[in-house]
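Contributing new records

If you add data, match the layout below exactly. Sequence lines come first and carry their own label; structure lines follow with theirs. Keep one chain per record. Anything else will be rejected by the validation script.
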Amino acid sequence: MAERRLFSAIEKIYKTVLILMTIAMFCTVTYNVFMRFVMNRSVGWADELARFIFIWMSFLGAVLAFKNNEHVGLGFIVDKIKSPFLVRIVGIIQESLILVVLLFLTFFGYKASITVMNVSPALSIPMSVVYLIVPFCGALMCLLGAGKIIALLRGSDPVINARRSVE
């Protein structure tokens, strides 16, 4: 039970970070639009900052969508299978293949992020900082994917459990 409360608290913090990033991006873009069209002065750093925030929000949002099984899937095929055992086997295979892809994403995302040496032109932020979101979110999704596989091996259905937590 304490584990569930901990994960719930972490998820609330995670969602709060996403909301704050959305607000920051909105404020940055609004400021830039105001400066460009009202003051006739474009602010170069605002475009870059909004782009970087959007990249980070997209990856962080993908982790949340993966946790709640909200990504596009082909559930109608699995829904036609009558045997609960076969549904579990298909789920294990599916989650295992996803985990393999996520491991590649994490590994090569990390390799790419540590080899980048350039900095962003307007903000002078090392691009490796921007690219680190790929292995970070990949690792989070690997942990979630492993948890889904373990749940399937134990006999519980993480897809149904995730749908219940969303509703």
